[in-house]
What we know:
Elements: H1 3-8, H2 13-18, E1 22-29, H3 34-46, E2 49-55, H4 64-70, E3 79-82, H5 85-95, E4 100-104, E5 111-112, E6 126-131, H6 139-144, E7 147-150, H7 162-176
Parallel strand pairs: 1-2, 1-6, 2-3, 4-6, 4-7, 5-7
Helix pairs in contact: 3-4, 3-7
Amino acid sequence: MNAKQLRVTKPTESELEKIERKPIYLVLDNVLDTYNIGSIFRLADAVAAREVILCGGTERPPSSRIHKAAVGTEEWVPWRYFDTAREAIVELRRVSHELCVIAIEQDPRSTKILSFKLQISNLQPVALVLGHETEGISKEVLDMADVIVEIPMYGVNKSLNVHVAAAVVVYKILEGM
Protein backbone atom coordinates (compact mmCIF):
# COMPACT_ATOMS: atom_id res chain seq x y z
CA MET A 1 0.00 0.00 0.00
CA ASN A 2 1.11 3.54 -0.57
CA ALA A 3 1.17 6.20 2.17
CA LYS A 4 -2.28 7.53 1.26
CA GLN A 5 -3.83 4.06 1.48
CA LEU A 6 -2.04 3.25 4.75
CA ARG A 7 -3.33 6.41 6.43
CA VAL A 8 -6.95 5.32 6.00
CA THR A 9 -6.80 1.51 6.01
CA LYS A 10 -7.23 -0.50 9.20
CA PRO A 11 -5.89 -4.08 9.01
CA THR A 12 -8.02 -7.10 9.74
CA GLU A 13 -6.83 -9.82 12.11
CA SER A 14 -6.46 -12.09 9.08
CA GLU A 15 -4.20 -9.58 7.30
CA LEU A 16 -2.05 -9.15 10.41
CA GLU A 17 -1.66 -12.91 10.84
CA LYS A 18 -0.37 -13.30 7.27
CA ILE A 19 2.63 -11.03 7.87
CA GLU A 20 5.77 -13.12 8.40
CA ARG A 21 7.60 -11.20 11.09
CA LYS A 22 11.31 -11.26 11.78
CA PRO A 23 12.43 -11.74 15.41
CA ILE A 24 13.36 -8.07 15.79
CA TYR A 25 12.08 -5.91 18.63
CA LEU A 26 12.55 -2.14 18.62
CA VAL A 27 12.64 -0.92 22.24
CA LEU A 28 12.20 2.83 22.72
CA ASP A 29 13.66 3.97 26.05
CA ASN A 30 11.96 7.34 26.70
CA VAL A 31 12.04 8.50 23.08
CA LEU A 32 9.99 11.70 23.17
CA ASP A 33 9.79 13.06 19.63
CA THR A 34 6.60 11.76 18.01
CA TYR A 35 8.24 12.08 14.58
CA ASN A 36 10.90 9.58 15.75
CA ILE A 37 8.24 7.29 17.23
CA GLY A 38 6.12 7.33 14.06
CA SER A 39 9.18 6.79 11.90
CA ILE A 40 10.19 3.80 14.04
CA PHE A 41 6.78 2.26 13.32
CA ARG A 42 7.36 2.86 9.63
CA LEU A 43 10.80 1.22 9.85
CA ALA A 44 9.37 -1.70 11.85
CA ASP A 45 6.82 -2.26 9.09
CA ALA A 46 9.49 -2.00 6.38
CA VAL A 47 11.56 -4.81 7.93
CA ALA A 48 8.57 -6.81 9.26
CA ALA A 49 9.79 -6.46 12.86
CA ARG A 50 7.92 -8.54 15.39
CA GLU A 51 7.14 -5.64 17.71
CA VAL A 52 7.76 -2.07 18.78
CA ILE A 53 8.05 -1.67 22.54
CA LEU A 54 7.37 1.79 23.92
CA CYS A 55 8.77 2.59 27.37
CA GLY A 56 8.64 5.35 29.95
CA GLY A 57 7.67 8.78 28.64
CA THR A 58 7.38 7.57 25.04
CA GLU A 59 4.00 8.62 23.63
CA ARG A 60 1.74 5.81 22.50
CA PRO A 61 -0.88 5.38 19.79
CA PRO A 62 -3.47 6.54 19.16
CA SER A 63 -1.75 9.85 18.49
CA SER A 64 -2.30 12.10 15.51
CA ARG A 65 1.37 13.13 15.60
CA ILE A 66 2.62 9.53 15.59
CA HIS A 67 0.05 8.65 12.91
CA LYS A 68 1.31 11.44 10.65
CA ALA A 69 4.92 10.20 10.71
CA ALA A 70 3.97 6.52 10.73
CA VAL A 71 1.57 6.96 7.76
CA GLY A 72 -0.71 4.44 9.43
CA THR A 73 1.86 1.69 9.99
CA GLU A 74 1.22 1.87 13.74
CA GLU A 75 -1.97 -0.04 12.92
CA TRP A 76 0.01 -2.81 11.18
CA VAL A 77 2.91 -3.28 13.60
CA PRO A 78 2.30 -4.94 16.97
CA TRP A 79 3.31 -2.79 19.92
CA ARG A 80 3.07 -2.70 23.68
CA TYR A 81 4.05 -0.46 26.55
CA PHE A 82 6.27 -0.97 29.61
CA ASP A 83 6.96 1.52 32.40
CA THR A 84 10.72 1.08 31.80
CA ALA A 85 12.98 -0.36 29.12
CA ARG A 86 14.55 -2.49 31.85
CA GLU A 87 11.19 -4.18 32.48
CA ALA A 88 10.76 -4.73 28.74
CA ILE A 89 14.15 -6.41 28.38
CA VAL A 90 13.58 -8.58 31.45
CA GLU A 91 10.27 -9.74 29.94
CA LEU A 92 11.80 -10.38 26.49
CA ARG A 93 14.61 -12.40 28.09
CA ARG A 94 12.09 -14.35 30.17
CA VAL A 95 10.38 -15.44 26.95
CA SER A 96 13.62 -16.05 25.03
CA HIS A 97 16.92 -16.83 26.72
CA GLU A 98 18.65 -16.47 23.34
CA LEU A 99 17.68 -12.79 23.01
CA CYS A 100 20.53 -10.54 21.87
CA VAL A 101 20.13 -7.00 23.23
CA ILE A 102 21.81 -4.35 21.09
CA ALA A 103 21.91 -0.76 22.32
CA ILE A 104 22.66 2.11 19.95
CA GLU A 105 24.62 4.63 21.97
CA GLN A 106 27.81 6.63 22.12
CA ASP A 107 29.60 4.95 24.99
CA PRO A 108 33.20 4.01 25.87
CA ARG A 109 32.14 0.33 25.57
CA SER A 110 30.62 0.72 22.11
CA THR A 111 31.67 -1.01 18.91
CA LYS A 112 31.70 1.09 15.74
CA ILE A 113 28.92 -0.03 13.41
CA LEU A 114 31.36 -0.21 10.48
CA SER A 115 33.25 -3.07 12.16
CA PHE A 116 30.20 -4.64 13.80
CA LYS A 117 29.51 -8.23 12.73
CA LEU A 118 26.53 -10.04 14.13
CA GLN A 119 26.28 -13.72 13.42
CA ILE A 120 22.83 -14.90 14.41
CA SER A 121 20.30 -17.27 12.98
CA ASN A 122 17.07 -16.17 11.34
CA LEU A 123 15.32 -17.42 14.46
CA GLN A 124 17.38 -15.73 17.19
CA PRO A 125 15.51 -12.71 18.54
CA VAL A 126 17.21 -9.33 18.64
CA ALA A 127 16.11 -6.36 20.74
CA LEU A 128 17.41 -3.06 19.44
CA VAL A 129 17.29 -0.38 22.16
CA LEU A 130 16.99 3.28 21.22
CA GLY A 131 17.20 6.09 23.74
CA HIS A 132 15.99 9.55 24.59
CA GLU A 133 16.99 12.18 22.04
CA THR A 134 19.15 14.13 24.53
CA GLU A 135 19.81 11.81 27.46
CA GLY A 136 20.33 8.60 25.47
CA ILE A 137 19.70 5.12 26.84
CA SER A 138 19.56 4.79 30.62
CA LYS A 139 22.76 3.43 32.22
CA GLU A 140 20.81 0.55 33.75
CA VAL A 141 19.66 -0.57 30.29
CA LEU A 142 23.11 -0.06 28.74
CA ASP A 143 24.49 -2.40 31.41
CA MET A 144 21.93 -5.05 30.32
CA ALA A 145 22.96 -4.89 26.66
CA ASP A 146 24.92 -7.72 25.08
CA VAL A 147 26.54 -5.21 22.75
CA ILE A 148 26.55 -1.44 22.33
CA VAL A 149 26.99 -0.10 18.83
CA GLU A 150 27.86 3.41 17.77
CA ILE A 151 27.50 5.13 14.41
CA PRO A 152 30.58 7.29 13.77
CA MET A 153 29.95 10.97 13.20
CA TYR A 154 32.47 12.76 10.99
CA GLY A 155 30.97 16.27 10.84
CA VAL A 156 30.24 18.84 13.52
CA ASN A 157 26.95 17.22 14.59
CA LYS A 158 27.36 14.57 17.30
CA SER A 159 24.29 12.44 16.58
CA LEU A 160 21.64 11.26 14.12
CA ASN A 161 17.88 11.28 14.60
CA VAL A 162 16.76 8.22 16.54
CA HIS A 163 14.87 6.74 13.60
CA VAL A 164 17.82 7.22 11.23
CA ALA A 165 20.21 5.50 13.64
CA ALA A 166 17.69 2.68 14.06
CA ALA A 167 17.47 2.17 10.30
CA VAL A 168 21.26 1.97 9.91
CA VAL A 169 21.56 -0.67 12.61
CA VAL A 170 18.43 -2.68 11.69
CA TYR A 171 19.65 -3.15 8.14
CA LYS A 172 23.10 -4.11 9.44
CA ILE A 173 21.37 -6.74 11.62
CA LEU A 174 19.40 -8.04 8.63
CA GLU A 175 22.72 -8.45 6.79
CA GLY A 176 23.76 -10.97 9.47
CA MET A 177 20.49 -12.90 9.58
